[in-house]
Amino acid sequence: MRSFRKSPAPLVIALVACPAAILAGCARPPGAARPERTPSHAAAAEPAPDAGGQVGPAASATGGETAPAFGRVLRPDAVVAAVLARNPTVAEMAAAVQKARARYPQVTSLDDPMLASWVAPGSLGSDKVNDSVRFELSQKFPFPGKRTLRGEAAEAEASAAGFDLEGTRLELVESARAAYADYYLAVRALEVNADGRRLLREFRQNAEARYKTGQTPQQDILQAEVELGRQGEQRLVLERARAVAVARLNTLMSLPPEAPLPPPAEAARRRAALPGVRELRELALARRPDLHALAARVAADAATLAAAEREYYPDVEVMTAYDSFWQSADDQERLRPQVGVRVNLPIQLGRRQGAAAEAAAQLFQRRAALARQQNQVALEVQEAYAEVRESEQAVRLYAGQILPAARESVKSAQAGYVTGGIPFLTLIEAQRSLVELRDRSYLASADYERRLAALERAVGGPLEAAPGR
After folding, report:
1. Does 122 fall in a domain?
2. Looking at the predicted structure, is the pLDDT value of residue 267 above 70?
């Protein structure tokens, strides 16, 4: 007669040790190297060149870097380069790109295989049956296409994040050029103020000389003092504006707000003829990063919708097992190895229909947002183009007509006052008009730089790369 009694210890040890060994082998220690990205998505959302044509760093340096060297004068291109290299917003958006890329392996990987084991406690040490255990290993496989669609959605989101990074660079370029224009305007206004005060002191000397000879009343001297006081007050306002402009530039470059900066360069950017507004609109629609980001998110939503529709199809789980519960007869030993399959039944249609409807609505919303943004881009280009053309004409008008006439007016008024031909108040009004017009001339130049920067952001990059330039 067959004996069933066996020691339970080896069986219990095997039952516990087998899953523990597998779990220990699968666990990755904290210091282990991270796996590389899969080639299928490694190229997604690579950072595009910035508005200056250079590819920016993945993470910008901040306080740990040496301050940039600008030389004797501060040029706008140097400011743009420093902002793109050091502003922490670039590092923030680059991290968002890396985060989006990290989604791909998460959504395309299979679930972990499952290991299960059973034991019949009553069989341990029994003299009627052998020790009874069961080991099972299973792996779930989603319906074909589900993982691919989830991967496509993740890749598209990563691509959109890359375009968001490029859009951030364009916005920083515009902010840097606008801040430089503010700095340029404040410094030039202080120079105009200094010239005006020097000219007023010269007028006061003329008035004092004429007063000593009895040719003019003391009122002329007092009027000159009043005008000098007004110019002195204006200097305080301009010095505050310069300090604020310096702080804004330094903040964009991740430098201390009070860090000294060299004076701005004299010459503005070369003013080449603008392409036609229709060409600029087409260029903007072709290369604006926000439009590319929305288009990528449309693709992600389309993949999400297709994945939701795939949820109507079942997933499959395959398994293999060894079952020693089969022991009623010696010839049933061969029945212990087993294979099997499990399939979920997708009969909960309400949940799946709701998910598909939500994904379809999201896709429709995103497509509408893309169409709306395309219209907005066309409007932005039209507005920025008109403003640049206005500023171009204003700069030429001041340089070619207004300022030369104003300077001649001051010279004529000063000569007329010295000879007694005109009153002192007329001379003061001519000088005041010259100061105001010089200020407005520099303001027109600064506005041109700001508006040109806004136009370049609106078309998605430098105008030097536009057709016809």
Report:
1. yes
2. no
Contacts of the segment 32-41: beta carbons below 8 A, 24+ positions apart: 35/105, 37/101, 37/104, 37/105, 38/104, 38/105, 38/108, 40/104, 40/151, 40/155, 41/101, 41/104, 41/151, 41/154, 41/155, 41/158
Q: What is the pLDDT of residues 165-182, one digit of tens each?
A: 999 999 999 999 999 999
Supply the range of the domain harboring residue 322.
1-29+89-141+314-345
Provide the 3-class DSSP secondary structure of residue 280. Answer: helix
Cα separation, 106 vs 448, whole angstroms: 49
Rounded to 5°, angle at Cα 364 from 363 and 366: 65
> Contact, 197 vs 225, CB < 8 A?
no
CB 190 within 8 A of CB 235: yes
Specify the number of domains making up the chain: 1
8 A C-beta contact, residue 190 and residue 166: no
pLDDT at residue 469, as a whole number: 52
Compute, in degrees rounded to 10, the torsion defined by CA atoms 35, 36, 37, 42: 170
**φ and ψ at residue 325, rounded to 5 degrees:** -65, -20
For residue range 24-74, list pLDDT tens digits in order: 555 555 444 444 443 333 333 444 444 344 334 443 444 456 778 888 999
Residue with tokens 């009043």: 226
How far is it, in rounded angstroms, from Cα 239 to Cα 232?
11
> What is d(CA 216, CA 205) in angstroms, rounded to the nearest whole number?
12
Residue 384 placed within a domain = no
Identify whether 436 is part of a domain: no
Residue 367 lies in a domain: no
3-state secondary structure of 173: helix
Six-digit token string for 162: 């890359």
